[in-house]
């Protein structure tokens, strides 16, 4: 019952986030990033797969879920912080985001602040608690990636050194995470609620503090989690499975280092270095892995490859899926995208398409529109030649983009 009281108080405190200006700042920053994604989709596809508002709304809901899970873990573990611990981390994370969008992550800001505290003595923070919170947040992020990271992938064309023009997807999701943590106050407050909990709790508490002479108060912290990746050699859903597992492993190792650092001082340095370096290593390894493995959205010897299908399109209604190879339409052999366009320009009232799916199985799909005819499939085809190729690293720096606009003026 005592645990239940503490958890109820923790969850109730999350709703106070609606009055926190930092929370709405995070929402605005997430909106601007999704707006940029929408503009890229319009330039490449002629339309956006989802509006920035739709993306923000879905991220908001998933982010609240992540906040609840994070609150549950941090409350049970007894991760405590002092007021100074997070005074610098969120502003630093926003500054780092201006350098590169993927740096909107507490692993970088938390690691840097912790190292500064250890080396220079400023700011004075509880390193073990900060690293523990970073670990828990990334454990939550691994769950969010698994359930939401593949949503609204953006189709792109990339120039491959071996296979020429290939298709792929950029995966970009951002989540606002409000979570409750336990704030250490160096005094006894009148009217405080007494809850009897185990002697080992809290697990993460600043060294030298007497639990009997302090007050533990719930407070809400705003964090922003972001996931950015590319899927070239695997589908978006397969990609997030691997990314989620690796990030969960990273989080567990970081949490273990944080727990050890409570008792062995040198591990504060190890954990502070591990947080940003290992996180960056995961991203670099994933990118190199994509470049080395054979892409799945490449041009076949015969037929054309479907990279994606638009919502509500004829292709979606027919059951054409990403990765399918179209090799015959109305008995005409299709060798390139122009062959398909030639047939559709005649607005046939009935079409049947022979496709080969990703497992090599052949299927015949049909569709009829006797009233208007069929002038478009609504499928995004991997071209054999195209100037509309992008680099996954483009437009990652807000500062660089602003500088380029200033130079143009």
From TrEMBL:
Gene3D superfamilies referenced in this protein's UniProt entry, alphabetically: 2.30.42.10
Keyword rRNA-binding on entry: no
Domain PDZ, first and last residues per copy: 281-359
Keyword Transmembrane helix: yes
Superkingdom of origin organism: Bacteria
Coiled coil: none
SMART domains associated with the record: PDZ
InterPro entries, A to Z: PDZ (IPR001478), PDZ_6 (IPR041489), PDZ_sf (IPR036034)
Transmembrane regions: 6-31, 56-77, 89-120, 127-147, 162-187, 247-267
Alphabetically ordered keywords of this record: Membrane, Transmembrane, Transmembrane helix
Protein name in the entry: PDZ domain-containing protein
Source organism of this protein record: Caminicella sporogenes DSM 14501
């Amino acid at each position: 019952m005592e645990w239940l009281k503490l958890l109820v108080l923790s969850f109730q405190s999350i709703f106070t986030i609606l009055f926190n200006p930092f929370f709405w700042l995070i929402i605005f920053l997430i909106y601007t990033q999704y707006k940029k994604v929408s503009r890229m989709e319009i330039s490449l596809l002629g339309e956006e797969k989802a509006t920035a508002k739709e993306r923000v709304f879905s991220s908001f809901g998933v982010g609240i879920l992540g906040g609840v899970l994070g609150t549950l873990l941090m409350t049970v573990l007894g991760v405590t912080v002092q007021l100074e611990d997070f005074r610098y981390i969120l502003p630093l994370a926003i500054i780092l985001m201006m350098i590169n969008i993927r740096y909107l992550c507490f692993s970088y800001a938390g690691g840097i602040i912790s190292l500064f505290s250890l080396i220079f003595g400023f700011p004075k923070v509880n390193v073990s608690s900060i690293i523990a919170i970073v670990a828990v947040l990334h454990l939550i992020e691994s769950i969010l990636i698994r359930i939401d990271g593949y949503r609204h992938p953006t189709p792109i064309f990339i120039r491959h050194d071996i296979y020429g023009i290939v298709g792929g997807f950029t995966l970009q999701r951002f989540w606002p995470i409000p979570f409750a943590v336990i704030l250490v106050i160096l005094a006894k407050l009148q009217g405080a609620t007494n809850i009897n909990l185990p002697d080992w709790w809290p697990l993460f508490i600043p060294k030298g503090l007497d639990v009997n002479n302090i007050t533990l108060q719930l407070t809400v912290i705003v964090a922003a989690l972001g996931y950015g990746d590319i899927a070239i050699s695997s589908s978006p859903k397969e990609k997030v499975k691997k990314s989620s597992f690796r990030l969960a492993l990273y989080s567990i190792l970081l949490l273990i280092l944080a727990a050890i650092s409570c008792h062995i001082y040198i591990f504060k340095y190890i954990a502070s270095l591990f947080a940003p370096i290992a996180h960056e290593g995961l991203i670099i390894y994933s990118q190199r892995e994509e470049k080395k493995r054979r892409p799945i959205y490449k041009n076949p010897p015969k037929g054309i490859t479907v990279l994606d299908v638009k919502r509500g399109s004829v292709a979606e209604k027919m059951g054409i899926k990403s990765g399918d190879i179209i090799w015959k339409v109305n008995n005409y052999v299709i060798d390139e995208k122009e062959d398909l366009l030639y047939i559709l320009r005649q607005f046939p009232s009935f079409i049947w398409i022979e496709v080969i799916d990703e497992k090599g199985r052949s299927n015949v799909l049909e569709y009829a529109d006797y009233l208007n005819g069929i002038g478009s499939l609504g499928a995004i085809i991997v071209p054999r030649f195209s100037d509309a190729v992008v680099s996954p690293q483009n437009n990652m720096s807000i500062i660089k983009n602003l500088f380029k606009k200033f130079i143009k003026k």
